[in-house]
Amino acid sequence: MWGKPITQVLEVRDLKTVFHTQDGKVHAVNGVSFHVEEGELLAVVGESGSGKSVTMMSLLQLLPMPPAEIEAGQAIFQNRDLVKLSPSEIRDVRGARIGFIFQDPLTSLNPVFTVGFQIMEPLRKHMGMSKSRARQRAAELLDLVGIPAAAERLDDYPHQFSGGMRQRVMIAIALACDPKVLIADEPTTALDVTVQAQILELIRELRQKLGMAIIWVTHDLGVAAGIADRIMVMYGGQVVEQAPIGELFEHPRHPYTQALLESLPGRHQANERLRSISGQPPLLMKDPDFCPFAPRCRHAFDKCRAEDPPLLRVNGSHDVACWLESAHAEAPNGR
Q1: Helix (H) or strand (E) holding 275
Q2: Nearest C-alpha neighbor of 325 from the set 236, 225, 243
Q3: What is the model's pLDDT at position 1?
Q4: DSSP string computed for 171-210
């Protein structure tokens, strides 16, 4: 029996985003390409400054322009290029077709409006609901994300909720208009471990129930391992590796991915010290013309310091940007 055909809901091609500063141009996102399939959870991982959040905010034009500028690239969603949409057109996409959960709910929620008002706002704007129907739906959404006595909490303000509950409110807002894609930008970073586990379990349940595509941005490979179908590793504003989750953990091909995995607890002998990645993240003040990881890489050779490797398909659905792997490559696959 044939399965349901796989459908891409979002395809990003060669995205480049810069920031114009007093010290010069910062190349924050350098030719990033990826796609997300219907119902898939793609985890985007990398250390701070790798370009994860800037990539996602570029898709919905959430960066202040200036100083930010999207210099090149496409983000194809429902046959439209998101980066070319006008301000009014992209506002119709945000919240309605693509939901976004930010890292800190306390700064994302407006402290002077009730949570009910903030959930009802997209329902009334994007879905044309009456006030009474929007309020009813807002209560349903709070119940969906696991807030007890949901209807009674609609008139409460953000400060009356705990950190974990505020993040649940943010998830309810992001889900309000049944988006095709949900982008979650490190939504559990500010939460303690117990609450983090509850939010991750909630995401698993909602994904199963609603079937949307999810992009989960995180610096934590352990979190990615627990929820993702596929993982994309970023470094220095570039994609350096992407593969199905099991394949990447069993057969990491890029030295940066290998180093990240070696730094995880539980992957060493009992008496062995945790390993760290020596050196510093790259300064992104110049257009990259060499591998950004070369200064920190124990395998780097002359070509790594002279040319930036393209993202190459090395095995089935496994892509890596590394000159060491170029001999095994099947074909270029964007970045």
Answers
A1: none
A2: 243
A3: 37
A4: HHHHHTT--SEEEEESTTTTS-HHHHHHHHHHHHHHHHHH
The predicted-structure confidence for 243-269, as pLDDT tens digits, reads as follows: 999 999 999 999 999 888 887 766 555
Cα separations in angstroms, 294 against 50, 219, 259, 277, 297: 15, 21, 13, 12, 5
Predicted structure pTM score = 0.86
DSSP state of 291: -
**What 8-state DSSP symbol labels residue 267?**
S
Residue type, 159: H
Q: Where are the beta strands (DSSP E) in 236-330?
A: 238-244, 312-315, 318-320
* Distance of alpha carbon 291 from alpha carbon 190, whole angstroms: 32
Give the Cα separation of 61 and 59 in Å (integer). Answer: 6
SS3 content of the chain, % helix, strand, coil (to 5): 35, 25, 40
The C-alpha torsion from 32 through 227 and 6 to 126, rounded to 10°, is -80
Using CB atoms within 10 Å of the CB of residue 163, give its burial: 0 to 12 exposed, 13 to 18 middle, 19+ buried: middle
Full 3-state SS string of 22-88: CCEEEEEEEEEEEEEECCCEEEEECCCCCCHHHHHHHHCCCCCCCCEEEEEEEEEECCEEHHHCCHH
DSSP element (H, E) containing 302: helix 302-306
Report the C-alpha gap between 116 and 158 in whole angstroms: 10
Beta-bridged to residue 215, according to DSSP, are: 42, 183
Query: Phi-psi bin for 162: left (phi > 0), alpha (psi -120 to 50), beta?
Result: beta
Ranges under pLDDT 50 in the chain: 1-4
Distance of alpha carbon 222 from alpha carbon 226, whole angstroms: 7
